[in-house]
What does this fold into?
Amino acid sequence: MDDNDFPLLDSPDTEDVLAALPSEEGDRPDPEIMLGLLTSEDVTERMLAARAFCELQDERATPHLIHLLQESCPLVRVSAAYALGRNLSTAAVDALIQQLDRDWNGYVRKGIVWALGNCGVRFPFPEIYRRTLEPLIRALQTDISAVRLWAASSLGQVAEASEDAAATVIPALALALAQDTIAAVRSNCAWALGHACRKIPLGQLYTEAIDHLIAALHDSDMGVQEDAKAALFKLGDARGLQAIEDLEFELFG
It folds into this structure.
């Protein structure tokens, strides 16, 4: 995973999930028209309007997008989830967390964890971003692989908010890096763990996190190995750099 921070709008996940939605070529959507369509009686129009606010920022849309999280159509709900990631508010954070706990659709939950990952960027205040930590950790530990994948990434983003947030997420990321059965999830955990380590001081927690990244250099999947190596390089940790050198000497002499 590239270390460029996940863009708030153009994530691969957004493109993947919303690819099934109808789209219109042309100019940027008119926010006034799209605001009206958010409450249209036509489900397709509501879906298209929600999708438009994945590009547009307008606080007037947020209450309507929160309401659309309750729609019976999952394509509307997933569009609303991504749009709320662009149009976050404290009320939206609470609504997204509640919906994450009860939504049966994995694509919707995936959109929700992506949106919650933006909280540390948009709301770097403890009373807001701390609410996201427990549900995101739970998603990383218990949800389907597609949701775990982005829960790991979102935890890495929220860890940016503070040392306290980073210290909270590191044990969960380290455990998933060691134990998750899906290589892509482990890769995202390596990226996120390296990201979180930058926010904490040297100490036992940091040392344990480095231990997990070093162990991941021997993961059965090459992508996980590369993400662990990249994380260690960026941290510049002496033990990590030595482990990389030792491994390369083992492989290439």
Observations:
- Residues 126 and 161 are 8 Å apart (CA to CA).
- The first helix runs from residue 12 to 18.
- The chain has 15 helices and no strands.
